[in-house]
Structures are given as C-alpha cells and as structure tokens.
Amino acid sequence: MTAQAFQVRGVWKRFGGRDALSNVTLSAPLGSCLALLGHNGSGKTTLLRMLATLATPTEGDVTVLGMSLRDDVRALRSRIGVVLDRHLLPRDFPLGDALRMYAGLYGVQDAADRVEELATRLGLGRRLDDPVRTFSRGMGQRASICRALLHDPELLLLDEPFTGLDARAMDVTDEVIRATIAAGRSVVLVTHDLERAARLATHAAVLADGRVVFQGDPAEAAAAAARGAA
Amino acid sequence: MTAPSELRLFRTLVAWDFLREMRRRTTLLSMGVMGVITLFLFSFAIRPEDAVLANTRAGILWVTFLLAATIGIDRAFRNDAESGVLEGLLLAPVGRATLYYARVTSTFLFVASLQALLLVLFLLLFNQEIPRATLAPMLAIVAATSLGFVAVGVLISAMTWSLPAGDVLLRILLFPMLLPVFNVAVEATDKAFAGRAPSWLHVGMICAFDLLFLGAGHLLFEHLVKDSGGRT
Questions:
Q1: With an 8 Å Cβ cutoff, is B166 touching chain A?
Q2: pLDDT per residue as tens digits for the range A164-188
Q3: Nearest to B92 among A43, A77, A90 (CB)
Q4: pTM score
Q5: Helices and strands, number each (H, E), in chain B
Q6: Domains, chain A, ranges and CATH?
Q7: Taking the CA of residue A114 as centre, how many other CA atoms within 13 Å lie in the half-sphere pointing to its CB?
Q8: Which residue ranges make up each domain of chain B?
Q9: How many C-beta neighbours within 10 Å does residue B127 have?
Q10: Which of chain B's ends, N or C, has fewer CB atoms near its CB within 10 Å?
Q11: Could you report the predicted ipTM of this complex, rounded to two decimals?
Q12: pLDDT tens digits, residue range A135-173?
C-alpha cells in the first residue's frame, strides 16, 4: 500500500448548526501535490486547517504523515509547514528577526543562514531588516512561504498562496512547489487558480458544500470546477 | 533539526513578548494610562488629609491595580490574535501549557513593573508611607495576588478573544472570579499599611488561588485554543 501524506476518513465538521465538512473521505500519497478546488465556503480551508492541526474533526478520523490528530500532535507540527491567508508574522518586527524567532521555535540549526537562504530564494533578501508592516500583500505572502519552509517540512499546506502575487512572484512560488515535490515532500494546495492547479498538481479534489464531489486527475478536476461542479 | 526543550521554548516566547512590547509599548502604555487616571480620579475624590483614607487606601490601591492589569490581560491574546501571530504560535511545535505559562509570565512581569510605578505614585499622591517592617511582606502579597490575577485572566482572555464584545465579556467573567482573592489582598495590604504583617491565612489563601488557576490553565488552555478562528 502506498504511504499517504494524509488520510481523511468520514470527517464531519460542524460550526454551530452548520456542516462545514460532510462525510469527507480523501487521501493523497506521499510526494504528491493535491489541489483542493471549490467555491468560497465549500470547506477547502476548513479541511486544510484540520490537516494543519488548527481544527479538530467533529466526527471521523484524520491521519497526517502517519499520525492521528487524536494523538499528541506536537511532533507532527514540526513536520508540516503552513501558509494561511495571513502571514502570521509580527508586524513591528524586521522580517529577519521574525523568521529567526520562528526558526527558534522549530529548533532550526543555523537559523540565520536558513533565513537568509529562503529570503533570497523568495526575493526578499534585501528586505530582511525592514519591518513586516511595510510589506505589500504579495511580499507578506512570500514572507509567509519563507516561514512555512524554515524547518524543511515534509508536508506543505498552502491556502491561496498566489493571492496578491505578481507574475514573477507566482513563478517563484511555482518553483518552490515543484522543488518541494521533487524533494519527495508533499503539498496540499488550496486555490481558485484552476489553470495553475492543473499545471502544478499531481492529484486534485473538488469540494462543494462541504462534500468531495470530484476526485482524480487535476486537469479534469479543474474542468469540473470551472463547469460549476463546485 | 533538534526539537528544543520546553524550557528553551518558554524562554524564547517570553523574550519574544518582551521584544515586541519594547517595540510597540502599547500594552504598558495603555495599562499605565489607565492606572494613572484611576489614581488621579481617586485623589480628587479623597484628599490625603481625609480621615476616610485610612480605611480605604488599600481598596483604592487594589482597584487601581485591577483596572490597569485588566487592560494588560485583555491584550495578552487580542494583539496576537488580530495580527495572526497566535495562529503562527499554535502551528509551531510548542506545548500548549508552555504557551500558557510563557504568556502568564510575560503579562505578569508587565503588570508587576507597572504596579511598582503605580505604588510609588499612590504613596506620593496620597501622602502615605509603608512601614519598613511590612514593606517586604506587602510587596510579596502584591506580587502573589497579581500572579493569580494574571493566571486566571490569561485563561479567560484565551476563552473570550475571538468572541464578539470579548473585551467586555472578559471583565464580566474576570471580576467575580477575582473577588475572593481581591478581598484577601485588600485586607492584607490594609494590615501592612497599619504596620502589621499579613497573616499566614492571607498568604495561604492567595497562594492556593494562584496554584488553583495555574493548574487550571495547564489543563484547560489546550482546549480553549483548539479550533481557534475556524472558518470555512
């Protein structure tokens, strides 16, 4: 049996009286890039936050990198990197200090070198001394990707990583995703960019009203999402 | 990559809180302004020569401490939650108890340093002095009571930051819970002003309150921050 980056079995998530996820069953093999597609409110971000250990299922089982979310997930957190809709960095800190602080929490060796290497790779090498509050939306997004990659995670969870990026930054992000997969790491990509999803992903799923309505080839999933299956 | 020890993570988080506060100074400034305004308002209502002051001075001091500390407690999670940093910390491989104790420690240190300044201002404004013999016990009572304030406050702050009108709810929940230890602290402080050392009963009750809520934070904090800010 192929080792899985994650497995979600019969998962429900209720907020108040509303089901954000309804009986979702989904998995992705190690070394894959799974694109999660669907309209706003379809449950993509809820599912991603669950994989990121920020939310727990109301019912069902979630296993990430072989570890159940019902167990102690601290060790799991050191193996996943997460990009959310906000950069999660302190606005008053220079980027370099903020990233080095996060590197300290993950126990990254040679944190200063690692921060410089990633910032340079994401085109932020000259902005390490600038406070994060001076960054544009796109720069914040790239800084967030730097933060998520600091500890060289085995699973990278990306929620709309292309939002606010210019063409060059999008290409750099593409390159980061490809390099992650090439290194045998896994990626879960939540996006509305169907064309990019079809190009980058190795697997795809379309969610609608908290249910998986399509699962399979990324190009077909993108077409299904475009037709409104989502 | 080596997983850092909880002690090292604790030190990193406390140091980070300090560095951030040194850059922003919003928490200390807000607490300071609230404390100074409260003391000045009391000083207009009660003159240093008024006989009533002897019976109310400990209460005035603790009401000032409480109102100022509440602002610091309210900001313990609100600033981080609003900027998204809290989610970043929750994503990191840090024990939830470590996160709680680090936040209690940094908030306590902010509150305690401000209380030292407010105490001096109180003594000057109301022309009071603390007998030398009871100064150390009184400072110990202030520190131990404030630790309890912060321990329970950070816990409630973690519960309320994401709710509508969470700052109001924090006060509604916090003040009744603090009432028992507040009464004991006022009584012990009153004795100290009068030159009598606080009783062991006072000390025991305050320490029990601290231990109760530090223990509750250890057990409950993880559940309070679970599913924080969940959205579809």
A1: no
A2: 888 888 998 999 999 999 999 999 9
A3: A77
A4: 0.89
A5: 8, 0
A6: 31-42+73-229 (3.40.50.300)
A7: 22
A8: 6-224
A9: 10
A10: N
A11: 0.91
A12: 998 899 999 999 999 999 999 999 999 988 888 889 989
